[in-house]
Amino acid sequence: MAEAQELLLQLQKDNRDGRLRKQELEELVRGLEAESESLAARLQDLSERERGLWALGALQTLLLLPLGVVALPLLYLALVNPSALRRGLARPGSDAALRRLRYTLAPLLQLRARGLLPA
């Protein structure tokens, strides 16, 4: 009888230890699930940020492309034939065009000199 009693006590102790271990494992699983959800949300945020940065990089490339299209031929021209570049940029208009412009703007310049137009 004493042996059966000891066996029963041992089984009860093992059962209690098993329940405690099960509770510990359940708490551990809940913690891991929460961490997994947190990491999944962080991964989603990083993916969205990466897409945004990729789009920004593509936009910058598209905006700088026309500058390269204009700048590279000018650089080539400046290195290969600098005199052609100077001739092309020397004067945007003729003397006659500048005289006409001065004649047209003279009344406005007089108004500005009298303080009737902002400087």
Automatic annotation (TrEMBL):
InterPro entries: TMEM191B/C
Record keyword Transmembrane helix present: yes
Protein name stated in the entry: Transmembrane protein 191C
Origin organism lineage: Eukaryota, Metazoa, Chordata, Craniata, Vertebrata
Keywords: Coiled coil, Membrane, Transmembrane, Transmembrane helix
Chain coiled-coil ranges: 8-49
Entry-linked PANTHER family: TRANSMEMBRANE PROTEIN 191B-RELATED
Bilayer-crossing regions: 53-79
Range of residues in the leader sequence: none
Any single Pfam family the record assigns to this protein: TMEM191C
Transmembrane recorded as keyword: yes
